[in-house]
Amino acid sequence: MNQREKILAILAFSATGILLLAFIATKVILGPTADYRAKAKQVALDVEKMQMKNSMEPIYQESLREAAKRSYGSDASVASEMSRAHLVRLIIKAGLAPDDLTLTPVTGSSIRGGREVGWNVRIKGSLDRLTNLLYVINNDPHLHRLDTITWSPIANSTDLTLQARFVTLVLEPIDG
């Protein structure tokens, strides 16, 4: 092997060695860097989602405070009695007689942050007064819901019987 061939062989092995080192460096050093970049992007997205959620927290707290002001309190038995008394006032306001009223207590489902309490309502009256009652209940600012409404005609009369479920949400106490 002459001098020229030795130089050529050294250059070829050197180039191969440099390429081999570059390949290894890319896999060892730059490979994990790409993984870290992907993880950093995911963490940045998670942080952005948390910041968005936290930015909505004051709005949710204010909404909860407003609902608490419209509720009947945080004690289920007190709220049940207060809602009954308020319902009787609404019935009188609608022009119906409380003598034709039958109330049966009900408890609804428990949800995170509160539970439902209320009354099964059965009342007799004319169509216009019962419709007026639904209007009065709908426009009442207290926190309540009226569902499972059924109308039944009374035999040999122009009156109807209205049956419904009047429930309110008893919120768990909140700070502030």
List keywords for this structure.
176 residues; alpha+beta; four-stranded antiparallel beta sheet; 3 helices; 4 strands; 25% strand
Write up what this structure looks like.
The protein has helices at 3-70, 76-93, 127-138; strands at residues 101-111, 114-125, 145-153, 160-171. By secondary structure, it is of the alpha+beta class. A hairpin with a 2-residue loop joins β1 (101-111) and β2 (114-125). The longest helix is centred in the N-terminal third of the chain and has 68 residues, at 3-70. The termini are far apart. The model has no long low-confidence stretch (mean pLDDT 83).
Shape: rod-shaped
Order of helices and strands: HHEEHEE
Oligomer: single chain
Number of strands: 4
Low-confidence spans: pLDDT under 50, at least 5 residues?
none
Helix/strand-derived category reads: alpha+beta
Query: What share of the residues does DSSP label as strand, in percent?
Result: 25-35%
Nutshell version of this structure?
With 176 residues, the chain is an alpha+beta fold.
Write the layout of secondary structure elements.
Elements: H1 3-70, H2 76-93, E1 101-111, E2 114-125, H3 127-138, E3 145-153, E4 160-171
